[in-house]
């Protein structure tokens, strides 16, 4: 009994004496919509930002931990609104789908998650992966069992039979065995698919409104889900408190999805004037994933392992994407950061910053896409996206000034996720 009391006393004492972590920030971009500040201290406790104060406060030298980032720029943790953590495109991808169990896939995803976190991305939205594996990884990270970014996950995408998110490229028996439960035809069946996705753990609903590049089917890039299916999906998802992210390349499918009321268009590669009008009317976000277009085009040009159906679509799309996204940006369409990583290597997410620069965005606007904008799209603006008292301690730092040179965001030297230090090269 005495031992128990002693242990209890020790334990209470440890809680009472819990130290703060204090970050000394040379330059601070707390919110990219505001000017940067210099010489600030961020006080962190219990995974949250307790206060941000002027100057370099000393804290209690006996117990507080000081992190010296006086030579660095400190920013909110980055957010990637479109990744596939359980997948990485390569010559073995098609075979691995058959070889890996859900457990294997989740472990591989944990490796990709760690790389993503070390690149400065403290939150990702996973838009299409085997449900049990990605939900397991999401929950393991949330419980602190595995180090990785916070994951908002869709599980398997909703798609029509033979559509972009259906299984393809294998013999019939395999196709039958691997068809996801979220493949649906007609509004009632698609209502069931949304409910099924939510039942098994989806935080967000991902749909494939048009054909896609990486499905091994020569079925083009135009609208694949019918108007009545799209309307019913959005109605059902919103009623269950879930947002809808629509993969869409062709203008007909982009516009049909926007008319149905989706919350974001993923890719948007061939959007037109009507799309811009609908974006502005509905307030939907565009997640351009320029890095995916670039990566697939690079692979297609090399020849290599991509089957002809995929290569043809990639080469057709590559030269036109940039102009469409430039038009959307100039027209004031709201843009949130997303890479479609998994198509590109996990951990290279920061390359997208250079491609956003290339469409003419200003550096502060580019930083906003991966912080405040993505936080709003994900419905997490009250918890992440800026650095302020009360928000979660998702904090990164880079050498140099990303407002002057956006390329420095490709080399994140310090990462804190929910108060835990994942990396510190300073
Ligand atoms: Zn994707």
Description:
The chain is 38% helix and 20% strand. It has helices at residues 2-16, 93-99, 102-118, 131-143, 172-178, 187-199, 227-239, 251-260, 273-282, 290-302, 308-330, 351-358, 363-377; strands spanning 21-28, 37-45, 48-54, 65-76, 78-83, 121-126, 150-153, 205-208, 244-248, 264-267, 285-287, 395-399, 412-417, 420-424. Mean pLDDT is 93; it is low at 4-17. It is built from 13 helices and 14 strands. A hairpin with a 2-residue loop joins β2 and β3. The protein folds into 2 domains: 2-77 and 386-424, Roll (Urease, subunit C, domain 1), CATH 2.30.40; 78-377, Alpha-Beta Barrel (TIM Barrel), CATH 3.20.20.140. The strands form 3 sheets. A 7-stranded mixed sheet has the order 3-2-1-4-12-13-14, with no helix packed on it. A 4-stranded parallel sheet has the order 8-9-10-11. The chain is globular. Zinc ion is lined by residues 82, 84, 127-128, 340.
Features:
Urease, subunit C, domain 1, 426 residues, TIM Barrel, 2 domains, binds zinc ion, alpha/beta
Task: Give a quick summary of the entry.
This protein is α/β, with parallel strands linked by helices and 426 residues long. It has 13 helices and 14 strands.
């Amino acid at each position: 009994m005495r031992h128990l009391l002693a242990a209890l006393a020790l334990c209470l004492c440890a809680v009472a004496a819990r130290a703060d972590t204090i970050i000394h920030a040379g330059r601070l971009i707390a919110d990219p919509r505001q000017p940067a500040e210099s010489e600030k201290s961020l006080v962190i406790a219990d995974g949250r930002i307790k206060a941000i104060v002027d100057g370099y406060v000393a804290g209690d030298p006996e117990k507080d931990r000081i992190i010296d980032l006086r030579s660095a720029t400190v920013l909110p943790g980055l957010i990637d609104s479109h990744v596939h953590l359980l997948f990485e495109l390569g010559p073995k991808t098609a075979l691995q789908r058959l070889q890996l169990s859900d457990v294997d896939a989740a472990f591989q995803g944990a490796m990709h998650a760690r790389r993503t976190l070390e690149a400065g991305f403290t939150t990702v939205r996973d838009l299409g992966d085997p449900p049990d594996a990605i939900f397991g990884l999401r929950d393991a990270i949330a419980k602190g069992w595995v180090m990785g970014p916070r994951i908002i996950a869709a599980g398997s995408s909703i798609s029509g039979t033979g559509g972009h998110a259906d299984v393809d490229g294998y013999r019939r028996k395999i196709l039958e065995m691997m068809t996801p439960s979220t493949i649906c035809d007609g509004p009632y069946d698609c209502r069931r698919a949304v409910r099924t996705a939510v039942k098994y753990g989806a935080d967000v609903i991902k749909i494939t409104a048009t054909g896609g590049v990486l499905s091994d089917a020569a079925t083009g890039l135009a609208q694949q889900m019918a108007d009545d299916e799209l309307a019913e999906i959005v109605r059902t998802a919103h009623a269950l408190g879930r947002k809808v992210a629509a993969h869409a390349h062709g203008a007909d499918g982009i516009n049909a999805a926007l008319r149905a009321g989706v919350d974001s268009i993923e890719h948007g590669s061939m959007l037109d004037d009507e799309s811009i009008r609908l974006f502005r009317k509905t307030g939907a976000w565009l997640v351009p994933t320029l890095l995916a277009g670039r990566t697939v085009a690079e692979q297609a040009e090399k020849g290599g392992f991509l089957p002809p159906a995929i290569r043809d679509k990639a080469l057709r799309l590559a030269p036109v994407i940039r102009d469409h996204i430039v038009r959307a940006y100039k027209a004031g369409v709201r843009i949130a950061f997303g890479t479609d990583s998994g198509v590109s290597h996990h951990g290279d997410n920061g390359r997208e910053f250079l491609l956003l620069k290339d469409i003419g965005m200003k550096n502060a606007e580019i930083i906003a896409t991966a912080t405040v904008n993505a936080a709003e799209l994900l419905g997490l603006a009250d918890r992440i996206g800026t650095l302020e008292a009360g928000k979660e301690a998702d904090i990164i730092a880079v050498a140099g000034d990303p407002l002057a040179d956006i390329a420095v965001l490709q080399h994140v030297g310090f990462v804190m996720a929910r108060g835990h230090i994942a990396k510190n090269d300073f």
